[in-house]
Amino acid sequence: MDNKNNDHFSYPPDSDLDLSFTSCASAATTTTFSSSARSSLARSSLTLSFNESRLSSTTSASTSIPSLHSRPHRQSDPNWSAIKTATNLSSDNTLHLRHFKLLRHLGSGNLGRVFLCRLRDNDHANFALKVIDRDSLTSKKICHVETEAQILSTLDHPFLPTLYAHLQVSHYTCLLIDYCPNGDLHNLLHKQPGYRLPVASVKFYAAQVLVALEYLHAKGIVYRDLKPENILIREDGHIMLSDFDLCFNADVDPKLETRTQLGKKHRSRNACFRDRRPVEQVVTEFVAEPTNAFSKSCVGTHEYLAPELVNGSGHGNGVDWWAFGILVYEMLYGTTPFKGSTKESTLRNIASTKGALFNEQENAEVKDLIEKLLVKDPRGRLGCSRGATDIKRHPFFNGVNWPLIRTLSAPEVRGIAFKRSKSHISGMALQKRRQWWRKGLSFFVGRNKFSLNSNHNYYCSINNDKVRKHV
């Protein structure tokens, strides 16, 4: 059944799939794959097994639910090209589960199991297939499955998953999304000394999570399940949030707001030694935060629950910014700030008036950021009124080039190997580029026989386009 030369007509119908697995590799040909630390299956090569006794002419074939909109930011994704090719070559121009072969089990969650799979005729198109058995779920969990599928179908962002296909096979729901070979942030933290990351790495991962949350909130989606286990690491070292079954939707009113700030000091162009003076700049900011979001459902991971979730008084968008503060703290300290000996004691610590404890030698900026995110009253919590717009302006994120954040090189940390994108500029490449510019400038200065550092010569701008030399 693994023969790639077989066309799709030779495969049994998708409705006869029982999703059991048999190993087709011997111990001598075992291959090691990268996966999350929570993976519970260590087989080398797994293929679909079909139950012939379940063949029936009355069973329905798999159906592919079309995407709700195009994804312009992922048009260059080679996986999209592979999916389109497989769809066009299909006899009914529809993607089916039989077009894929399952390689191994990656892990299991609250709703279903996740498998690494690949298109049968393309060895380079790897995907993660989330398989949910609807017959084994309660009606409430089926609603969670529908919520996740609906949200995934609307996402188009570099730090969020792409839904390549939504397949209904008998009583199974299958969601085909990106495969992240470097596992999750939880696994990465456990490979670090003391489960802690350097501050520079914390800033990198926190900035990307912040941008992902900003996008979700701009669409009126409250995530409610932020934790290291749900932050996957792509092949290039950048992050991808996962698991959207606990999200809820709310209305959001996007708007442009203006504010004034002191900009860079200005020097007059009509004089050489006039004092520089600061100038006021009008800055326009995009703000889209679901401030009216409200729910009384108690969901999430206990160490990341916000106080308003614990006391059951109802919650909104602020739970995501609380969880963001917990995440930054855990990346720095290797543990969450309110963790107790039991779940009950952890919840009591969260609901109490006590704040988080910090190392006295801790970076003052990151400490201030965490304290403002972990304000127990959501009305005073950073981000609750203007979202990520205010958090981005915090001094801890100074130096982050937000428009180009997806092109930043991922930090090199223990226990992870990643493939750098061609668009990334490494520190070494940047250093060589600077050296090239210095050499070019020195050549130009030498030919024009003057020194930019001379104490005897200076140049003034006259009428904006003429230069006069004084000795």
UniProtKB/TrEMBL annotation:
InterPro entries: Kinase-like_dom_sf, Prot_kinase_dom, Ser/Thr_kinase_AS
PROSITE patterns found in the cross-reference section: PROTEIN_KINASE_DOM (PS50011), PROTEIN_KINASE_ST (PS00108)
Assigned keywords, A-Z: ATP-binding, Kinase, Nucleotide-binding, Serine/threonine-protein kinase, Transferase
Enzyme Commission identifier(s): 2.7.11.1
Start-end of Low complexity biased regions: 58-67
Superkingdom, taxonomy of origin: Eukaryota
Reactions catalysed according to its record: L-threonyl-[protein] + ATP = O-phospho-L-threonyl-[protein] + ADP + H(+); L-seryl-[protein] + ATP = O-phospho-L-seryl-[protein] + ADP + H(+)
Pfam families (UniProt xref): Pkinase
Region (Disordered): 58-79
Domain Protein kinase as annotated: residue spans: 100-397
MF GO annotations: ATP binding; protein serine/threonine kinase activity
Protein family: Belongs to the protein kinase superfamily. AGC Ser/Thr protein kinase family.
Protein name: non-specific serine/threonine protein kinase
Source species taxonomy: Eukaryota, Viridiplantae, Streptophyta, Embryophyta, Tracheophyta
